[in-house]
Amino acid sequence: MEQCKECKYWEETEDFRYYKGEDYDDYAVGFCHRYPQTLDCDDLSNKGFIETRDIDWCGEFQPKKPEPDKTPILDLCLSRRLENIFEREGFKTIGQLIEKPFTYFAHLDGLGEASHRELRRKLSEWIKENSQS
């Protein structure tokens, strides 16, 4: 099931991190930023975003986009040859690859023209797929 903790509109709070109740396990609390903040006319100090639990859900769920700096290179489904080269060179995330110009990769030992084309194609596909709203 699609839960708040997996939604791009939800942000976990730092103040009230975990609660424990009788009918459920531990859960995190956060705020939904899908709509603007609301104002309670009876209590002007009570304004803000809707507070939800991480396990809650609604009908307007939108998945979080993968972050290149946190997404492992393995998610690109590269050939084993490319995976070995990047492992040897210390690359671990897609973000590390994206920040380099393509001319940088031409100088890596073992990265031939076919591997260079594969890398360009896979990175382009990943960027296109993950930049869509």
Helix/strand/pairing category:
alpha+beta
Strand residue content: 5-15%
Helix-strand sequence? EEEEEEHHHH
Radius of gyration: 21 Å
Report how far apart the termini are: 20 Å
Shape descriptor? elongated
Low-confidence stretches: none
What is the mean predicted local confidence, pLDDT? 83
Largest sheet: 4 strands, antiparallel
Total domains: 2
Instruction: Please bin the fraction of helical residues.
Output: 25-40%
What is the count of β-strands? 6
Count of helix runs: 4
Could you please describe the fold and organization of this structure?
With 133 residues, the protein is α+β, with helices and mostly antiparallel strands. The chain folds into two domains: 4-53, no CATH class; 73-131. It is built from four helices and six strands, in the order E-E-E-E-E-E-H-H-H-H. A hairpin with a 7-residue loop joins strand 4 and strand 5. The model has no long low-confidence stretch (mean pLDDT 83).
